[in-house]
Write a structure and sequence with these properties.
231 residues, 8 helices, 7 strands
Length: 231
């Protein structure tokens, strides 16, 4: 039986260097399908809605650890549906991810940045900063600094969409990826990412250490939506 009492510190394959672009491309395509089919994009849009409150006519939204840009594309589609003029910033440390995002979403009104998010200096603070399936890559002390960075660099607030550490989530994604995935990265990293995921008590402890007040809500399927809205 897998032990999920504590977060795993085993690194995912995607965190290593020198992965061929073709392999990263396949990984990002499959992650987009997973986010779409299992409701990950819907949770991200919920995060945007919670921070915006009363709908604005214009907004700038920044994603750290943006991967292939599918989250920003999903938000852009929603913004168009409710007549919000949106600009986007996508930050990722892997050039291959940014290259893929630019190829995949050339129509997106986005600025793409290859960098460690913590080294990015915002000339103008975005209204919203968020991350999706990014935080579980980090240790708790690193997450405290990340949350503080997000809080400092946003105008309206930030949110996080990430995995719940749960046996059913682990075994389900392990079976699904074994059956349907063509990516060795997804087959290895998807179940591993669940072992690196969170319980609500983890988020409450991290937020307390960061000195940030935020809501933590469980979402289907096996996610937490953490929202810190500035007053």
């Amino acid at each position: 039986m897998i032990n999920l009492s504590e977060r795993s510190d085993t690194k995912e394959l995607l965190d290593s260097n020198n992965i061929p672009f073709a392999d990263i491309k396949q990984n990002l395509k499959e992650l987009n399908k997973i986010n779409t089919l299992l409701g990950g994009h819907k949770i991200t849009i919920q995060g945007v809605k919670k921070i915006l409150g009363i709908i604005n006519n214009e907004v700038t939204i920044c994603e750290i650890g943006c991967g292939g840009g599918d989250n920003l594309a999903a938000i852009a589609k929603w913004c168009r549906s409710v007549n919000i003029k949106a600009q986007f910033i996508g930050i990722d440390i892997k050039k291959e991810c940014i290259d893929f995002a630019q190829i995949q979403y050339p129509q997106l009104n986005a600025t793409w940045i290859v960098s460690d998010y913590a080294k990015v200096e915002m000339s103008k603070k975005p209204d919203i900063i968020f991350s999706s399936l990014f935080c579980h890559h980090f240790k708790e002390e690193e997450l405290v600094k990340m949350l503080q960075w997000m809080q400092h660099n946003t105008v309206k607030g930030f949110f996080i969409n990430d995995l719940q550490r749960h046996p059913l989530a682990y075994h389900s994604i392990k079976i699904l990826t074994a059956l349907f995935s063509r990516s060795y990265l997804v087959k290895n990293d998807a179940p591993l990412s669940v072992t690196r995921g969170f319980l609500k008590k983890d988020w409450l402890r991290i937020l307390n250490s960061a000195g940030i007040n935020a809501s933590v809500k469980w979402m289907w399927a096996f996610r937490y939506l953490v929202v810190a809205r500035k007053l």
